[in-house]
Amino acid sequence: MTTGSSTIMKLASVLIAGILLFGCLQAPGGAQATEKPIGEIVKEDIATPGPIASAKTSVTPIATTQATASAEPTTEAAPTSQPAANVQASATTVPIAAMQEFTVEIDDSGWYPSSIAVKKGVPVKLTMKMREQNVYFAGGDLKSDVFNELGVGAGQTRVREFTPDRTFKVSNIWPNNGVWKGDLTVNVE
Questions:
Q1: Are residues 59 and 109 in the same domain?
Q2: b/e for 71-92, b at 16 or more Cβ within 10 A?
Q3: What's the rounded Cα separation, in Å, for the pair 183 and 110?
Q4: Which of 6, 67, 87, 160 sits a CA distance of 20 to 30 A from 137?
Q5: 128 with 173, same domain?
Q6: Tens digit of pLDDT for each residue in 156-167?
Q7: For 40, how many CA atoms within 13 A lie in the half-sphere containing its CB?
Q8: What was the pLDDT predicted at 70?
Q9: Among 72, 82, 21, 88, CA closest to 49
């Protein structure tokens, strides 16, 4: 590729990126533009929205110059050491870890289920529901070295979000006397 055709390709990329970024071609007044071969597009065919409308007069159609391969020297400026602007419209998607969601029920006899398996480093939303039946009138305290939920009464729900880094247990303890009623094991894989 010659330097002249390289410049034309860069200009074409800039024009295409501009069209993609500013909503494609529209006729003045918001009407839909009719399709024309690129050699027939003139400045008036290119509408720009809002405050940059004055840029409309500085648009030069790139189709007026044909790319030719030539062995003759050109008078174009030598490339500079500055990086070229990225003219391609692109979207970068950063993967976000999906939330792991679990619901467990609790009563004075234990946790249902009594263990869950979670992925290390992936956020967890844990919903803990104290059952209405088989629950001491003061409910329970849900304690672990990751979080504590105190005074969870019969029929109440608590939700905790955390990012697991190790296996741990959550204990259901009678609030009035500290008696252990059961554990939920959170196994980190």
A1: no
A2: eeeeeeeeeeeeeeeebeeeee
A3: 7
A4: 160
A5: yes
A6: 999 999 999 999
A7: 5
A8: 41
A9: 21
